[in-house]
Amino acid sequence: MNDLQDVSGNFSQPYPRSNPLRRLFRGLRGSLERARTRRLLAQLPSRDLADLGLSHADRLNELEKPFWR
């Protein structure tokens, strides 16, 4: 019984830190999603843009952004 150790202090962080490879894939997935939604935005007719409350200038402003932003 004396060989038991108190391991309660070893779990101080609720979640382990994410590794760089996981962060890279998360960033890549986000960039691809932004590129996909911008392609869809480019295909919307002006009537649908108005339904969303966006102007043609808003659309152009969004489409000029690079995929990583």
Explain what this protein looks like in three dimensions.
The protein has 69 residues and is mainly alpha-helical. It has a domain at 19-63. The chain is built from three helices and no strands. It has helices at residues 20-43, 46-52, 56-63. Helix 1 runs antiparallel to helix 3 (56-63). The radius of gyration is 23 Å and the shape is elongated. The termini are far apart. The model has no long low-confidence stretch (mean pLDDT 83).
SSE diagram, text form:
Elements: H1 20-43, H2 46-52, H3 56-63
Give the gist of this structure.
The chain is about 55% helix and about 0% strand. It is mainly alpha-helical. It has a domain at about 20-65.
Shape: elongated
Structural class: mainly alpha
The separation of the N and C termini measures 57 Å
Quote the average pLDDT. Answer: 83
Q: What is the N-to-C order of secondary-structure elements (H for helix, E for strand)?
A: HHH
Strand content: under 5%
The biggest sheet, with number of strands, parallel, antiparallel or mixed sense and barrel status, is: none
What key phrases describe this protein's structure?
57% helix, 69 residues, mainly alpha
